[in-house]
Amino acid sequence: MGEKMSRRPYVREVPPTSWYFRMPRYMRYMAREVTSIFIGIYTALLLCGLANLSAGPEKWDSFIKSLQAPSSVIFHWLALAFALYNSFTWFNVAPKALPLQFGEELAPDSVVAGGHYVIWVLLSIFILFWAGVF
Amino acid sequence: MAKSNKPIIWGTFAAGGEIVSLVMPVIILLTLLAATGHVPTVFSYETMHAFAAGWFGKLVLFVILFLSLWSQAHRLRITCFDFGLRADTLVAIVMYVLAAAGSIATVVFLARI
């Protein structure tokens, strides 16, 4: 089978590891995909913090100290940048993912996205205030 | 109609995406402040321990960690596929086992506090 194929089907070459370099919008899609790597590692870091919190004051204090290592500071800046990108892109597609319907009418996209931004900013300010940052 | 477990997966994925988008940047900002030497008062052992000891604090920490673990596991699975790692079943098993282990660890640590 297959040695004497009478027809030659058209095979579109899609390089599995570098397809996203072809178009800017593929690159933007992949940039959003990469945010999951940083947020995933950061979630593991939070879990590590919880483990140290449950292990007593000495362990907790050494965990907070270990955050001040240069590699940790660099990781935090990167994680913050990727998390912000993740949030912006999520809120921007929110009107498509979560359309709000009132009777026959759909709420305008700007209301759904804008509402998310307002809740995001208020919640962030509240958490900073609660944490004693200001 | 055919039964499907997709609503459960997608529900977690969507709730995870929403919670992660809303709270992750500010939580990262808090630990970044700690990392640069400006440790927020909430990160003193007494304050943090008191927060995690109450039922409300436990609930908040569990919801954030649980949803983040599962939504990132699901997204990482897709990210691996997009970067050309096509062993999807293996990747899915590894990711979901990690998320499940992380969820169990969260419950165990919270129960100890």
What's the quick description here?
Chain A is mainly alpha-helical and 134 residues long. Chain A has helices at 24-54, 57-66, 70-97, 109-130; strands at 101-102, 105-106. Chain A has a two-stranded antiparallel ribbon.
Question: What this model shows, in words?
Answer:
- The complex is a heterodimer of chains A (134) and B (113).
- By secondary structure, chain A is mainly α.
- Chain A contains four helices and two strands; from the N terminus they run αααββα.
- In chain A, helix 3 (70-97) runs antiparallel to helix 4.
- Chain B has one domain (19-112): Up-down Bundle (3 helical TM bundles of succinate and fumarate reductases), CATH 1.20.1300.
- In chain B, 81% of the residues lie in helices and 0% in strands.
- Chain B has helices at 6-35, 45-53, 55-82, 88-112.
- The longest helix of chain B is centred in the N-terminal third of the chain and has 30 residues, at 6-35.
- In chain B, 34% of the residues are buried.
- The mean pLDDT of chain B is 93.
- At the A-B interface, helix 1, helix 2, helix 3 and helix 4 of A face helix 1, helix 2, helix 3 and helix 4 of B.
Keywords for this structure?
heterodimer, A: 134 residues, mainly alpha, 3 helical TM bundles of succinate and fumarate reductases, two-stranded antiparallel ribbon, 3% strand, flat, B: 113 residues
What's the helical proportion of residues of chain A? 55-70%
The CATH topology name of chain B reads 3 helical TM bundles of succinate and fumarate reductases
CATH level-1 class of chain A: Mainly Alpha
**Proportion of beta-strand residues of chain A:** under 5%
Total number of strands of chain A: 2
Overall pLDDT of chain A, averaged? 92
Low-confidence stretches of chain A: none
Report the largest inter-chain contact: A-B, 52 and 52 residues
- Structural domain count of chain B: 1
| Count of domains of chain A | 1
Oligomer: heterodimer
Following the backbone from N to C, one meets helices and strands of chain B in this order, namely HHHH
Q: Secondary-structure element order of chain A, as H and E?
A: HHHEEH
CATH top level assignment of chain B: Mainly Alpha
**Count of DSSP strands of chain B:** 0
Q: Which residues of chain B form runs of ≥5 with pLDDT under 50?
A: none
Gyration radius of chain B (Cα, Å) is 17 Å
Q: Can you summarize the main beta sheet of chain A? A: 2 strands, antiparallel
Q: Tell me roughly what share of residues is in helical segments of chain B.
A: over 70%
